[in-house]
């Protein structure tokens, strides 16, 4: 998109409970429309209740908001930062109302999801469109969204330091990396969502050779291929990773077992590798996550770590970007490249480190449409985003 004169920045995120009484209402929000009874939700609630009913994601978003404000100020960019969530207070619609009351009319949004896909990109655009309609602000408040940033230098380099340190630490523990494996972990998604995100560009040869359709194997769809490209890049740029084996794995799947999701699960992959070779240690890189929210500290730091312990393996999980200076600076770079009020010489060039990037500011109209269990597409306001003032389609 051509640069515009934006007057505010919105940090959009998932949200999380901030006390035991919030847990079930929060999970009802997350699963709205699926008819899941509270007794089923209580099974997931135990993850939050073990941590006092508090998800760390809200404090992490407060820290990220403050870091963005500091970086914008350091660069002399006058752009107030607001924060809105999909599933918990502060909700996106109320935040949009507050921005409008404060006199803002053109807003640029940064989300806490880096990759392409329904939940990580399109759903945020739907949230914005729904928020404008619910508040009666369509036509009065314009909201755009920055591109997906999975291969932006700021995001990629924020993982590299942790991978390097993790491998050095594993060398100190084991004396060698010969029997160490690096797992790049991300959130699993239904294979139908992976297919909707699109086939990997130039992947026809892969499909011809394997017969795989998007979502069936790693690399045959955009979502998994983006992760693979970033993982490969990180291994190449980390000297300690030379000759170390690695793979892309998934976590946090939900729903009935009859619905196929991307595999392998990290725990299954760990067990299989331990059987196949004399594995002694694993380094886990949470490549699909921006911060240490519940699915990181439970699914990786609790469940995957326990699997490693049962298998007699050394386990080390590297940091998420959080408020790493390179990550924060990279987000502001992507904001700055869209700001008409900055002189052209001060707008950063669009950066992307893989063959996929830099990703589109405006995605194709029908990308990442959610497929329901009955095979139909989810009704969505995204089809009329251009009418309600939300761009990024």
Automatic annotation (TrEMBL):
Gene Ontology terms for molecular function: lyase activity
Top-level taxon of the source organism: Bacteria
Known catalytic reactions: Fe-coproporphyrin III + 2 H(+) = coproporphyrin III + Fe(2+)
Keywords linked to the UniProt accession: Cytoplasm, Heme biosynthesis, Iron, Lyase, Metal-binding, Porphyrin biosynthesis
Main location (coarse class): cytoplasm
Subcellular location: Cytoplasm
Associated pathway: Porphyrin-containing compound metabolism; protoheme biosynthesis
Residues annotated to bind Fe(2+): 187, 295
Family: Belongs to the ferrochelatase family.
PANTHER family the record matches: FERROCHELATASE, FERROCHELATASE, MITOCHONDRIAL
Name of the protein described by the UniProt record: Coproporphyrin III ferrochelatase
Protein's organism: Nesterenkonia massiliensis
Lineage: Bacteria, Bacillati, Actinomycetota, Actinomycetes, Micrococcales
């Amino acid at each position: 998109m051509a640069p515009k004169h934006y007057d505010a920045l919105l940090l959009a995120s998932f949200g999380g409970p901030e006390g035991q009484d919030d847990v079930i209402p929060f999970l009802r929000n997350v699963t709205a429309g699926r008819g899941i009874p509270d007794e089923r939700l209580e099974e997931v609630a135990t993850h939050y209740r073990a941590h006092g009913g508090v998800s760390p994601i809200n404090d992490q978003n407060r820290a990220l908001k403050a870091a963005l404000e500091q970086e914008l100020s350091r660069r002399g960019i006058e752009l107030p930062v607001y924060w809105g969530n999909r599933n918990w207070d502060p909700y996106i619609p109320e935040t949009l109302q507050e921005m409008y009351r404060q006199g803002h009319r053109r807003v640029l949004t940064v989300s806490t999801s880096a990759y392409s896909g329904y939940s990580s990109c399109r759903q945020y655009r739907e949230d914005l469109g729904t928020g404008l309609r619910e508040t009666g602000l369509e036509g009065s408040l314009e909201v755009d969204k920055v591109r997906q940033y999975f291969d932006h230098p700021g995001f990629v380099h924020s993982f590299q330091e942790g991978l390097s340190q993790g491998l050095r630490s594993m060398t100190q523990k084991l004396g060698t990396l010969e029997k160490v494996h690096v797992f790049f972990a991300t959130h699993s998604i239904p294979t139908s969502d992976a297919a909707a995100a699109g086939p990997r560009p130039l992947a026809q040869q892969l499909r011809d050779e394997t017969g795989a359709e998007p979502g069936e194997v790693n690399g045959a769809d955009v979502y998994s291929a983006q992760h693979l490209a970033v993982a490969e890049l990180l291994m190449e740029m980390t000297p300690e990773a030379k000759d170390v084996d690695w793979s892309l794995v998934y976590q946090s799947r939900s729903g009935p077992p009859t619905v196929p999701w991307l595999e392998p699960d990290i725990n299954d992959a760990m067990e299989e590798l331990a059987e196949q070779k004399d594995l002694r240690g694993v380094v886990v890189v949470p490549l699909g996550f921006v911060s240490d929210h519940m699915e990181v500290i439970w699914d990786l730091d609790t469940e995957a770590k326990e699997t490693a312990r049962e298998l007699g393996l050394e386990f080390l999980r590297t940091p998420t970007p959080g408020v790493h200076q390179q990550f924060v600076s990279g987000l502001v770079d992507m904001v700055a490249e869209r700001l008409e009020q900055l002189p052209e010489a001060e707008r950063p060039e669009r950066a992307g480190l893989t063959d996929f990037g830099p990703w589109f500011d405006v995605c194709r109209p029908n990308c990442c449409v959610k497929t329901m269990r009955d095979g139909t597409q989810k009704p969505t306001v995204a089809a009329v985003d251009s009418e309600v003032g939300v761009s990024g389609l």
